[in-house]
Amino acid sequence: MREYTDYIRIKLKKGEREKILKRMEEAGINNMSAYIRKMAIDGYVIRLDLSDVKEVSRLLRINANNINQCAKRANETGSFYYGEIQRIQVQQEQLWSLLKAILQRLSTI
After folding, report:
1. Residue 29 and residue 38: Cα distance in Å, rounded?
2. What distance in Å separates the CA atoms of residue 73 and residue 75, rounded to the nearest whole number?
């Protein structure tokens, strides 16, 4: 547990607390002390929109499930559908392209 031994009191004008709370919400920070310390020391908080990463992750899970189903079918029957494997390969290549584009975008931040 951290022990903070020093403190600073600040006075706010009417409405400034609400502005701070709004910016905290935008930054995804719930602790006002942590937010104010971060802003006072570093001057900024970066919040990334990673919704595209979540979507690619979801699609990768679906594709992995498809691969597992093909492997299960091949193990049970001794055969597989070549067209299904080709479709999964195309999907996998598309997902890798999406992921590369996301990583490229994030590397410029």
Report:
1. 10
2. 5
87 CB neighbour count, 10 Å cutoff: 14
Q: Find out whether 109 and 48 touch, Cβ atoms under 8 Å.
A: yes
**Tell me: the pLDDT tens digits for 38-88?**
899 988 767 788 888 899 999 999 999 988 988 898 888 888 788 888 888
Structure tokens at 8: 């600073």
Domain layout of the chain by residue ranges: 1-47, 51-107
Q: Do 20 and 32 contact (CB within 8 A), yes or no?
A: yes
Predicted confidence at residue 1, as pLDDT, reads 65
Contacts 24+ apart (CB under 8 A), 57-60: 59/91, 59/95, 59/98, 60/95
Cα–Cα dist 105/32, whole Å: 31
